[in-house]
Amino acid sequence: MDEMITYCGLACHSCPIYLATREKDEEKKYKMRVDIAQQIKKLYGQDCKPEDVTDCDGCKTEGGRLLSGSKKCQIRKCASRKGVENCAHCDEYACEKLKEFFATEAHAHAKERLDEIRSGL
User: Fold this and answer.
1) Residue 6 maps to a domain
2) How many structural domains comprise the chain?
3) Contact (CB, 8 A) for 48 and 41
4) Domain range for 71
5) Cα 84 to chain center, whole Å?
6) Of 53, 21, 23, 25, which Cα lies nearest the Cα of 37?
7) Could you tell me if 53 and 20 are in contact, meaning their C-beta atoms sit under 8 angstroms apart?
8) Is 66 among the domain residues?
9) Is residue 1 scored above 60 in pLDDT?
10) 5 forms bridges with which residues in the sheet?
11) How much is the average pLDDT of 60-72?
12) Helix spans in 1-121 (H)
């Protein structure tokens, strides 16, 4: 499976929301969404219920299922508007929006991934 990388450097194949979207067993899918809601509360301080966790086919999807939070993502909007494959390809890498995103411990690996991509350009 080719690795799907989001604009900000996250890998879809390891995203709990992406994995829950693909889960066929409804009971297991619900348990995954319970866990995701708890992670959202812990990482971002946002109250979230399992039913608030919508399906997602990746933030680059056109007309497909997209996580509600991704619809509001300023990084996604900017990269999409600029037509870049991901932020590593942007002339303004790493902008303030990305630096703020990378500052979260949960997203440090996204910076490493984008830095690696950028070094190969």
Assistant:
1) no
2) 1
3) yes
4) 12-114
5) 16
6) 53
7) yes
8) yes
9) no
10) 11
11) 84
12) 16-22, 26-44, 68-72, 74-82, 96-102, 108-119
